[in-house]
Amino acid sequence: MHLDAITTALRVASSIGLAATDALVLSNSNRLTLHLLPCDTLAQVAPVPSVAAFEIEIARRLGELDAPVARLDPRAEPRPHPLDGREVTFWTHYTPASPISPEAYADALHRLHRSMREIPVEAPSFRDRVSSARRLLDDPGRTPELPAAHRELLMDVIGHTLSVIGARGGAEQLLHGEPHEGNLLATAHGPLFIDFETCCTGPVEFDIAHAPPAVETHYPGADPAMLRACRMLALALVITWRWDRDDQLPDGRRRGSLWLAELMSLRGGDLTA
């Protein structure tokens, strides 16, 4: 499957005039991300059906607003390229630059949110993601290795945090959905966000909660109580997905255990504070 996806990417790249004879694997989870050479482009390969068209549309619109996002490769038509039951998309490859400071991270996320308020794109609510996680927790057949005590903890955290978020109210808007460090590139052009397949609507605090804790103090106007609830909710969701029997994230179970310890530490305080 892995080698077949690489072959697909190389064939599609060659068919549109990109010189691609080699591929370096950058990541491999729900889709494969490759650095194609010598054409120096980034290719993403996902099984059909995918949300590639949705992601491209958001990235294109944000790029037109000069938002801090990675650009599509201008040498390729901005659309998913289907072949062999997969869709390939092509993006600009950026050479890594200096590490991103918490201040620069917060500024990039704030500018991203400002641009996202300007694009008329329909996206699912973050609550749909919550419902998906709850279905996993309600079905031990889909999460067979999740201990009962942890299952109860995750259900409790999700219920409590949703209550806090609902009580705090506040505006909701288009969000990245998962603007964590793995989805932010350090480039010579400044920090650039990637991977918009997870875009959803919700409070900005839901996005901020995916960033390192040092970032939140530099994001203007964030509600501390909402942010704490969103951080716990985001942890509960990603932990639940790591116990999905079909999860494909490399080293996912170990990461899930680390995040579970972090969640339990956060839960030690008063949730509604």
TrEMBL record:
Coiled coil start-end: none
Domain Aminoglycoside phosphotransferase: 52-212
InterPro entries noted in UniProt: Aminoglycoside_PTrfase (IPR002575), Kinase-like_dom_sf (IPR011009)
Alphabetized Pfam families for the sequence: APH (PF01636)
Protein name as it appears in the record: Aminoglycoside phosphotransferase domain-containing protein
Organism: Kineosporia succinea
